[in-house]
Request: fold
Amino acid sequence: MENLPAYIGIVLGASALLTVYYFYRASNRSIITLSILLAWLAIQAIIGLTGFYTVTNTLPPRFVLLVLPPLLLILGLFATKAGRAFLDQLDLKTLTILHIVRIPVELVLYWLFVYKTVPEVMTFEGRNWDILSGLTAPFVLYFGFNKGKGMNKTLLLAWNILCMGLLLNIVFHGVLSAPFPFQRFGFEQPNIALLHFPFIWLPGCIVPLVLLSHLTAIRQLLKGNHLNNA
Reply:
């Protein structure tokens, strides 16, 4: 990993911070939310720098300690009254534009492939089309929140569902391309980059926040409280 150009890590780090910033804005600039997210990034940075996640021959993989806490937090938000109240007050417009971070993220994955630290299957030249989510986010923001004609609920709902599918697709291929005992893809070049800092911030922060943004948007649109964001 020491052979990687510095700009790749810088772009990924900036993407993680941008994701946190947009989610902070969506939460009505909640200092508690921002503090939790920044603390999580700092903790994972410290752990990642020790090389803890590069040990891959354990069951369950140490990688679980990176991705499971955010997933449990998301589950807790949807399972509790206070959590659902928090989700329902998030700003839908900001959650929509948050997805532009997927553009630099996909560029990072492509660069990592070029430098032989992730397999081609994880890039837009392989089976990862998640960059479309980022590229279409500004257009969905514009046409989905047309002040003159009101909110296009159908467009927003369809886009969030489809883009969540694209996200789950790359998560699936990314996990099964890592050098874990259950690896299924990328044997010619396993996914090793995402076991190192700062790239651990992708599965540990960016992906959970992107997933949470989709789930929250879908919840708001189906409930109808999205009208408050129009």
